[in-house]
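Narrative of activities, Objective 1.

The group set out to show that a structural description can be obtained from nothing but a protein's sequence at a throughput compatible with the screening campaign. Below is one input-output pair from the validation batch, recorded exactly as produced.
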Amino acid sequence: MPTFTRTNTPRTSQRHLTHIASAVALLLACQAAIAQTAPAAAPTSVTFNVATQPLDQALARFARQAGLQLAASPDLLRGLQGRAVSGALGVQAALDELLRGSGLRGRIADGLLTIERGSQRAEAETTMPVVRVKADAVRETATGPVAGYVAKRSATGTRTDTPIVETPQSISIITADQIKDQGAGTLTEALRYSAGVRAEAFALNNRDDSFRLRGGSEGSTLLNGLRSSQSHPFNPYLTNEPFGLERIEVLRGPASVIAGQNGPGGAVNLVSKRPQADASRNVELQVGNYDHKQIAVDLTGPLGDDQNLLYRFIALGKDSNYSVDHAKNNRTFVAPSLTWKILSATQLTLYSEYQKDDSGTTISYLPYQGTIQSAPHGRISPSLFTSEPSWDRNGGERTRFGYEFSHEFSPNWKLRHNLRHDRTKGGYLQLYPNWWEGFVDSSGASDPNGTYLNRSQFGFDNKTNVTNADLLLQGNLVWGRTQHTLLLGVDAMRANVSYRTLDGSATPLDVYNPVYGTFPEPSFDGQQTTKGSMRNAGVLVQDQIKIDERYVVVAGLRHDRAKTTDGDQVTDSSAISRNIGLVYLANGGWAPYTSYTESFEPQAGSDKTGTAFKPRRGKQVELGVRWSPNKQVTASAAAYQLKENNRLATDPADPNYSIQRGEVTAKGVELEIAGRFRDWDLTTNYTHTQARVTRTTPDDIAALDKQLVSIPKHSAAAWAVHKFGSFGLPELKAGFGIRYVGKTGDGYDDVTAPSYTLMDAMVAYEPHNWRIALNVSNLTDKTYLGVCNYGYCNYGPRRQAVLTVGYRW
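Output recorded for this entry:
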């Protein structure tokens, strides 16, 4: 049994209490600032698409597009027709046009649209009382669309449709509107403005969605609540397509009770776009630098006149390149889905997805000399391609299908069942520099004054079949002064993989004046095929208890069993995970909370000696406060301490293998604000992370008490979009963002990559049904090092400009 060395970590942190106090003061200041403004108003300008139709349906669609709640008497609307409204218009002007000739008028105040009789008609007829009814068509759900940047409900933290303010754990929601405004083309780009997330943790990496959550943990990626396998050797080497997502939800901290077998850092749940009752059709064309060309289509609505059968069809084709020379970036993505409302209490959604990625290698693995350190011949270009253009490849092909079924036995009991199957063929084939050897001459011999780097070949080719399923029974009960949302569930994942690898030496490359074609394409023929499998199953029980409309207690318990095989190696493991949290729903929209959560994640593979890896375990204590004064604003502050055992790290003696460290301790503070302030949409955050190795094996003692690789202590980001309706230009809006990432180390404090600040910008013109937008990321084309560790560095993405022309009808 290995021996461990431990460093002391205080049980409490006065510094974190100070941060929390500062955060509360900041939220109070925001509250005071908003209190000095007028009551929350409707947005000045919105792009509407409301066809001529019965008035009740027209108003429901209008309210959804304006982000309002609808209040009206059904008798008041019966038999009336709403007029068509389209284009970027002021909300009140659009409402007046929709109601013109109906004899009705609309009032907007505090996010509520109230319909009542017009004054002339009221004089002639008896005024009917207005009955305030929140229309189902505009009520936000945990998986549905959101107007703007502020979501109020989520299922990621509880697996039930729950107000976020009642969830005792940190959650960030990235809406489809935010993804569109920021022009995010990848999941990691969409995560850039979220607290507690180290987006693009390996710089310009297209091999997978490389982000890190609290304490530098990989966390887990969920798709509609079901786990998506990303770990070796089950990694499909395909990144996720944001155009197909309704929202991206970031749950920070251990969450195995809800998310299943997942990493301690948390989970990122991708919520897919699903069929909608309101017909909507959108076509987009894009062009940009690096020969970027893209076309995308999103169509949804009822099939014919039957509101019980809804469809959605999403498709995207991309032909592009990266800022790295010779690295292509091509994608085909198709995602049809169909929702059948079988009965009023029974619904079935069928969906499928096809994705094919054809990309080139963007990770360069350049040595310290020539990147972060000086070199005889100067800095190596950030656009250098280190493989062979004629055959280098990265990506694959995935076919996905599944269903989502729900049935309500009564108003208080509901059954949900989801199943998804993924079939993937993917991998990569590349040459990468031998950074550890330093510069060489053209023959490969060591030469400190040389311009060449030796290269090695490496390839990975796999085929995976992954099936996920869950079965959840939810009951809503009332016992005395308490309301209970009880959840009982089982879930399972079955994965099979067969893969081949190849490696070996290759020819050197002049990194200052590269000449390609010196090494032929390696072949997987004759390479041994290794087979592996993963069998996971879990049982969970959870109760959300609301007491006197003031206190919310969330308690959960889960038991997991897992069996992983990789070749001849078999690993069996099991665990019990717990979570408990308390929320106090105070006046003024304040909600302080505290929670304790755990995680469990099996790990495939073994170290260099053949010892199988143990499962990762995580335990976290979190203290936080949320503020949600109205539907347009949300803010949060959280402090946490997270302990993780058995994390994998690169073996310092051989980078081709991994080792397991004893314990990693992460402490941090996260602040986040999102909202709509008159003509502004805003999201901003600050993250402080102290993540260190606090117990390890003697052969890795150099990492003890060091900040983890690629994890900055400080980071911050802010993004704001201004609409120019008050200047008489309701069709025009512009956005600006700034991202700061503090300095990062290599895990041993030998080398430190400098901090960097990047800027993004957007301008959009939206006349009638059109949208013309220009997005620019890394506005100043800053050259920076995204990560430096284990002897190599990788550059971050360069400036990218994309022009989008879209038409919606």
